[in-house]
Structures are given as structure tokens and as C-alpha cells.
């Protein structure tokens, strides 16, 4: 889920300098064209072109009849967007997605940070082993672990309710109760993903100069004040990167509710995400115009949240 | 190296040593607890997959099988189509890895080292496209694949994955560090640009190629949404699609589902454990902050 977006605004470094005199830039440019052609063709035809087509698609009433015969296609302007804004199911899906991203995102980042701080300590033993263990869920197949967690959440036979019983709490119908279904999905997502950002935080921690801690200790700063006044401020760029990629990934919630609720987003739509709604509308009911409008609303939401984080950081907020 | 718990060691004297020992015990206990929580779902999955039918659905739930049986694994391979899913997953992941590795390496090297007009602008455009969620392209891409006759074929999954912006970015980051003198020396020796790419650049890029290979293989193996859309027939399912489908039909067969989950996860987990150094390097290459 995480791990697609790589960098934020980094200007390309320039190669170059003195070159061998024998070949003009045209030979190099020709070679570059050949080397670039396959990748750019694939990305152009299979990604950029469809993105443009999706924008057009979202302005039409493309449905099952248009799938059969394109003559049934009509241009309806912003009709899909108007319909969408009036659709309570869309608002529910958006609310659920925002809930998942704004509760699950920070929780994941916090878990990653905690794991990284523990692992980075000089007192920790067997670091390589623990790092591998914490990272293992990241490489597992989401569908498979969702199947496993569905069993862990079983109201009678699941491990989670048994643990609750040990500490004297009542059993929870995790996936059957609308209040608990989303928290259950968040818990699974945190478990699955925290190892990824942990690695990024670990690298960030190792880049903090030791002298800063020494200075803080001379000033009599204890563990907590060192964390607040040295570690966290120095991790600010890492936080921005981790925050941006986590939120982008979490807004695309799909597989967890698909597997845990058998494709429905239940109970009573409490785990229906924007992408799951898009999938149902587009590929189950073939309302592709409507689904394309949904995809663009998702895109706008992701852009807005990313821009907010960049702005917030530029203003020096966050602490 | 840094803060967490580190200052306890600075106290000096016997009291300091005692506090340091306490902090070390506490910290390592927290690590062990966190590791246990992380591993329990995976360990329980393995344990339940070995239980006789019905044993997972009793109260209170058992942690270990009363007797170990491989019947569920046998059933997956004989009565159900799991061997077919395994084959599909392996072929698709291998093809995507090989092709995208080649195409991304070519493009990444060109962006890093070859001079041509508009290079920075083109690369910047590609990076900007990274903010577009892949789902936006999915609906028209499906129609395109239908038009090309690629729905429900390996090609439907492989073709769109043959290059990736992230892969090109990763390759370019690495290729930037190749010494220009080496490339120029090869040019002076009369090597063609393609020859330079094949005989100088690719061998030097081996570490990042390995990183990108394991990244791509794992991501393709685990991918769900696009294969779910484009593979419509049971014979073409990859493991995750097949497993999701089985888990809908065999909702109550917990032991069988756990065996399916083990078979889906085990190959990628083992691959990761064998090559984790390269995988983790990829995360760090992908998150450069300067």
C-alpha cells in the first residue's frame, strides 16, 4: 500500500562536465531516445493516456449499454459530479476513508516511530533480528493476512476476544458491529505497515549528529527532553516524507475491507471506502462514468491532504 | 547511538550502573513484547493450517494442533486449483520483474547520464505524475485492455507493469553516482552507446538492479486490485485473487484458508529474508532527503 511515491520536489542533478569530443550531443540524444522509448511508451499508453481518458470518461454517462455499443455514450458535463455530491453513499465512503486515513495514518506513524526509537537505542540487543521481525508483515501478502485477521477477529473463536476475556473485558463483534469494523481494519493496517516507516525513521535517527545529544546532556536534559528538543525536531523532514506517503497510501484503502467484508464494505457500509465504491460502481455495475468521477474526487482529496501537509511543514508547524 | 535510554548510562558509579541495567531490561522487554505481538498472527496462521478440520472453530480456541495434519495443503493442491494459481503468480511476477527491470534501467540511465534537450523537464513531469493514484487510470485501462484482447490473459497484468516511474527514479538515483570518466573512456575506445549501457552501466548497477528486482517481484506477487479487475476467469487467477475467492466460498473452513494463506505468504517472506539487505536499501534509496 505504501511505497509508490518516492520523492518530494527534488531538482534533477546535472550530469555532464567535459565529455569525450568524438561524438556530438546528437548521438547521445539518439541513444537516449532508444533507451527511453520502451518505458515511456508503457507509462504513456498504460498510465498517462488512461488518466486523461478517465477525465473525459467522468464527463459521460458511460454504463453497461456503452460497454456493449459506444453509440449509447452521451456527454453529460459535470452530471456525474453533481450526482455524486447528492449521493449519501458517496459521503459515507468519503467519511470512512477520511476516518481510516486520519486515525490509522497517525497511529501507524506513531507505531513506526516507537519501534524505531526502541531499535535505535544503544541498550537494545539483537537489533537485526528485531528489525527483521518488525518488518516481516510489510512483505506479506495483504489478502492472505486479511484472511488470517478475519479469523483473529472471529467473535467466538478469535484470539482478540480471548485476550479481551483474559483482562476482563467483554467480547466484541469486531467485523459485525458498525462501530468496531473500521477500528478492526485500522488495527490490521497498523500491524501490516508500521515496519516500513520504521526503516525510514531508523535512517533519520542515524543521521542526527551525536554531538547534539551530548550538548543536551550537558545541559541536563533527560530522556524525554532529548526526545522533544533534539530527536523530534531533527526528524522533521522524515516526518514530512513519512506523513505524505502514508496518507496517500491510506486514502487508497481497498483490499482490507474487500477481504474482511467479502467485497461489500459492511456492516451497513461502515467500511465502504472510496476505492471500494469505485470498484463496485465501475467493475460490478459498469457505471464507469460515475466511477471515473469518484476516482477524480479521490485524486483531489489526496492532492488536498498532501498540499496541507506541505503547507503545514513550511509554516514550521507540528510542534 | 541516539537518545532513547542512552542517557541512563552517563550517570557513572554504582547507582548509574543499576539504572542502566533497569533501563536495558525494560527496553528489551518492550522489544520482545512488540516482536511477539507482531509474530503471533503469522505463527497462529501456521499452527491452525496444521490442525484437523474443525479444531479451529471450538471454544476456547486452541493454540497448537492436537495432531499435525497436512490434509489441507493436500486438498488445496488436489481438489482445489492452488497449483494453477501458484503457477500464474510465479509466471506473472517473473515476467514483470524481468521486463520492468530492463526498461526501467534503460530509462533511468538515460535520465541520469545522457544529455538531451528537455531532460530535466521530462523527468520532472514523470515525478509529478507520481501523485496521481493508480486507480484513476484503472477504468480506461480496463477498456483499453479489452480492446486489445488482453483481458483475462497474463498480458493484461504484465503489459501495464512493464515500466514504473518509481523504478525509473530508483535507477536514475543510482546511475547518477556512476563516474562520467568511465563512460567517456568507453566512448573514446569507440564503444557504441548501447554497448556502453550493456557492458559498463548494467554490471555497475548490479546492487540497485537486485534491489529493484526484489521490490518488483514482491509487489507484483502481492498485488490485488488490478489483477482482480483484469483476470476474470478462475484459471487465470493469481494466488491473492484465488485466495480471496476461496475465502468467500469456504468461509467456515478456517484450517483450509490458513493453509492457503501460508502458501501465499511463504514464498515472498522467504525471498525477503534471503535478500532483505537489498530490500531495505531500496526503501532508503526511495526516500532520499537532502
Topology summary:
The complex is a heterodimer of chains A (319) and B (290).
Chain A: H1 25-57, H2 64-68, H3 79-85, H4 88-120, H5 127-139, H6 142-152, H7 159-166, H8 178-206, H9 210-218, H10 223-234, H11 236-251, H12 255-260, H13 274-284, H14 288-314
Chain B: H1 13-49, H2 71-78, H3 82-113, H4 119-129, H5 135-147, H6 154-158, H7 165-175, H8 180-188, H9 193-204, H10 206-222, H11 225-230, H12 239-249, H13 254-286
Structural features, described:
The complex is a heterodimer of chains A (319) and B (290). With 319 residues, chain A is mainly alpha-helical. Helix content of chain A is 69%, strand content 0%. Chain A starts with 24 loop residues before the first helix and ends in a 5-residue tail after the last helix. With 290 residues, chain B is mainly alpha-helical. Chain B has two domains: 13-72, no CATH class; 80-286, MetI-like (MetI-like fold, Orthogonal Bundle), CATH 1.10.3720.10. Chain B is 71% helix and 0% strand. Chain B contains 13 helices and no strands. Chain B has helices at 13-49, 71-78, 82-113, 119-129, 135-147, 154-158, 165-175, 180-188, 193-204, 206-222, 225-230, 239-249, 254-286. In chain B, helix 10 (206-222) runs antiparallel to helix 13 (254-286) and helix 12 runs antiparallel to helix 13 (254-286). The relative contact order of chain B is 0.12. The model of chain B is unreliable at 1-12 (pLDDT under 50). The interface between A and B is large, with 127 and 126 residues.
Amino acid at each position: 500500500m505504501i511505497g509508490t511515491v518516492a520523492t518530494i520536489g527534488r531538482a534533477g542533478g546535472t550530469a555532464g562536465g567535459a565529455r569525450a569530443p568524438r561524438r556530438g550531443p546528437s548521438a547521445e540524444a539518439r541513444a537516449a531516445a532508444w533507451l527511453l522509448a520502451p518505458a515511456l511508451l508503457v507509462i504513456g499508453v498504460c498510465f498517462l493516456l488512461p488518466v486523461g481518458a478517465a477525465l473525459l470518461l467522468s464527463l459521460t454517462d458511460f454504463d453497461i449499454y456503452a460497454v456493449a455499443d459506444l453509440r449509447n455514450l452521451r456527454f453529460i458535463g459535470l452530471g456525474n459530479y453533481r450526482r455524486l455530491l447528492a449521493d449519501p453513499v458517496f459521503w459515507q465512503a468519503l467519511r470512512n476513508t477520511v476516518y481510516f486515513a486520519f486515525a490509522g495514518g497517525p497511529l501507524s506513524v506513531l507505531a513506526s516511530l516507537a519501534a524505531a526509537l526502541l531499535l535505535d537505542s544503544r541498550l537494545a540487543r539483537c537489533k537485526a533480528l528485531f528489525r527483521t521481525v518488525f518488518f516481516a508483515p510489510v512483505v506479506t501478502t495483504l489478502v492472505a493476512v486479511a484472511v488470517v485477521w478475519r479469523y483473529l477477529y472471529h467473535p467466538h473463536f478469535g484470539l482478540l476476544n480471548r485476550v479481551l476475556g483474559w483482562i476482563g473485558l467483554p467480547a466484541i463483534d469486531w467485523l459485525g458491529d458498525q462501530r468496531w469494523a473500521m477500528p478492526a481494519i485500522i488495527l490490521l493496517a497498523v500491524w501490516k505497515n508500521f515496519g516500513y516507516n520504521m526503516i525510514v525513521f531508523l535512517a533519520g535517527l542515524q543521521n542526527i549528529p551525536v554531538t547534539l545529544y551530548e550538548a543536551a546532556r550537558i545541559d541536563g536534559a533527560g530522556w524525554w527532553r532529548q526526545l522533544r528538543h533534539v530527536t523530534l525536531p531533527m526528524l522533521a523532514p522524515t516526518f514530512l516524507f513519512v506523513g505524505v506517503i502514508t496518507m496517500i497510501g491510506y486514502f487508497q484503502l481497498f483490499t482490507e475491507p474487500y477481504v474482511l467484508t467479502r467485497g461489500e464494505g459492511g456492516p451497513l457500509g461502515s467500511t465502504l471506502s472510496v476505492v471500494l465504491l469505485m470498484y463496485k460502481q465501475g467493475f460490478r455495475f459498469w457505471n464507469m462514468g460515475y466511477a471515473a468521477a469518484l476516482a477524480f474526487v479521490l485524486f483531489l482529496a489526496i492532492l488536498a491532504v498532501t498540499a496541507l501537509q506541505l503547507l503545514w511543514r513550511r509554516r514550521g508547524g507540528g510542534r | 547511538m541516539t537518545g532513547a535510554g542512552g542517557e541512563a548510562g552517563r550517570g557513572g558509579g554504582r547507582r548509574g550502573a543499576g539504572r542502566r541495567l533497569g533501563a536495558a531490561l525494560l527496553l528489551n522487554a518492550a522489544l520482545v513484547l512488540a516482536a511477539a505481538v507482531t509474530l503471533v498472527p503469522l505463527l497462529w496462521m501456521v499452527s491452525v493450517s496444521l490442525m484437523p478440520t474443525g479444531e479451529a472453530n471450538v471454544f476456547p480456541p486452541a493454540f497448537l494442533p492436537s495432531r499435525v495434519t497436512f490434509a489441507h495443503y493436500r486438498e488445496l493442491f488436489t481438489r482445489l486449483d492452488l497449483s494453477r494459481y501458484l503457477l500464474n503468480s510465479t509466471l506473472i511476477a517473473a515476467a514483470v520483474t524481468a521486463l520492468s527491470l530492463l526498461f526501467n534501467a534503460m530509462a533511468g540511465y538515460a535520465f541520469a547520464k545522457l544529455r538531451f534537450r528537455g531532460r530535466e523537464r521530462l523527468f520532472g513531469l514523470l515525478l509529478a505524475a507520481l501523485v496521481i493514484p493508480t486507480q484513476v487510470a484503472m477504468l480506461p485501462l480496463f477498456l483499453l485492455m479489452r480492446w486489445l484482447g488482453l483481458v483475462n490473459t497474463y498480458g493484461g497484468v504484465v503489459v501495464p507493469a512493464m515500466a514504473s516511474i518509481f523504478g525509473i527514479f530508483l535507477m536514475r538515483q543510482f546511475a547518477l553516482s556512476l563516474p562520467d570518466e568511465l563512460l567517456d573512456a568507453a566512448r573514446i575506445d569507440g564503444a557504441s552507446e548501447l554497448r556502453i549501457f550493456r557492458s559498463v552501466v548494467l554490471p555497475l548497477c548490479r546492487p540497485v538492479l537486485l534491489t529493484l528486482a526484489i521490490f518488483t517481484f514482491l509487489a507484483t506477487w502481492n498485488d490485488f486490485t488490478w489483477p482482480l479487475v483484469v483476470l476474470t476467469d478462475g484459471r487465470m487467477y493469481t494466488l491473492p485473487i484465488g485466495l480471496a475467492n476461496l475465502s468467500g466460498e469456504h468461509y467456515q473452513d478456517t484450517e483450509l484458508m490458513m493453509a492457503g494463506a501460508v502458501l501465499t505468504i511463504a514464498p515472498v517472506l522467504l525471498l525477503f529474508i534471503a535478500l532483505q539487505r537489498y530490500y531495505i536499501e531500496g526503501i532508503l534509496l526511495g526516500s532520499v532527503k537532502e
